[in-house]
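Appendix C reproduces, verbatim, an entry submitted by the partner laboratory led by Prof. M.T., so that reviewers can inspect both the input and the predicted structure.
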Amino acid sequence: MTTRKIVASALVSALAGGAQLAQATDVFRLEGYGAISRAMGGTAVAHDVGPAGMMTNPATLSLMADGDQAMLGLDLVTTDIKVKNKATGESVSSDTHANNRGPYLAPEAALTKRLGAWSFGVGAFAQGGLGTEYGNGSFLSRAAGGLATGLDNSSRLLVLNIPFAASFQVTDKLTLGGSIDAMWQGLNLDLLLGADQVGSLIGAGRASGSLVGALGGLPDLRGAHFSLTKDQFLGSGVDAWGYGGKLGMLYRATPDTTLGASYTFKSRMDDMEGRATLTAIDGIAGQIAFKGKIQINDFQMPAHVDLGFSHHLTPQWTVAADVSRVFWRDVMKDIKVAFTADAGGDINILLPQDYKDQTIVSLGAAYQVNDSLTVRAGGRFASQALSSSTLFAVIPATPRKHLSAGLTYAFSKQSKLDFAYSHAFKETMDNTSQPNTSAPIEVAHAQNNVTLNFRYSF
């Protein structure tokens, strides 16, 4: 293992700390980093949100006071996800059926240093993820013809970001910043495809390889199930390392108004690799398991551009607004699965996703009550990136409207506690189309997020 990966692995372990992943709400991305940003609707491009600013616009590090600052914190996310079979009226909720499911916990850690015109930072943040757990007894675990399989349907995606950031105050008005980010992502997935879904993939040219013929040769094929899951806090069936980066700038238009812009580059992740089991379900022969190696190829986090401004209405009142464009279309056309059985044979599948680019508007306000207390509130509104015709029950990344509130309490000039609460309003989406569902489904998803940070200046 390289030195970079040894250091990064240590940071990942420190970040995870035996915890579980967070459920992202801007598709696979969290709707803001750190409690200050989260309480203000995720705004972070043009105002000081503390060390977590390196995750959105590294140039905001120069807005912090001189000296060093450390931050420790966590997100706690509780989800309300329900899938309904519109043909039968049956429903199933995503609950804690296994050790690595919700409620989801994502710690954060960062350290910054200000040296004159220069500011530096390093951190470890959960950038986003996804988690569902429907168990093995619902209609999602029945193959064609209503055959009960007893096989799980679940998902867990975790994306970690380890930025090394710097900013430089060029003039009194202009600041530039950037970061190089080590990234890690891991995926657990249990997914049952009915025989009709398998046939739809084959008919559309989305399934190929020698195992396609083997499945087709079974006397009464009812479905196929992929399992690439480790039932551990951080363990993932497949994972990969990679890198990303950001560029940012700030411009102080007036003493009370700051403009900001940042660009986050598309990630460069290796293919996720690991072990998996492909189980063919046959009405006569039963369940036939093929163990082997699996890859999820070219699974990337998208590029996005963020523009923002902040303005001091009075010495106590601050307002902020950001507009973001997230380029999901470039990275989520298909989920590319490649499986090679230990006993020989392979299958390659393209699961269609066809995400759309997403526009996000974030609004926030803060009021400094006194030297010890600041209160905040905000809202966040996004266009829908997912298409109903390609929705998976195990990937319900649909919420797009949030309201948030929070506060900062200063125990002293050195120590501060930040708190935020964010509510994602219920979003409902239907899918009646193969290959990503067999039965017509309705997926409803809402959630609550609590964020707590402790900051210490020294």
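The chain is about 10% helix and 55% strand. Additional entries are available on request from the coordinating office.
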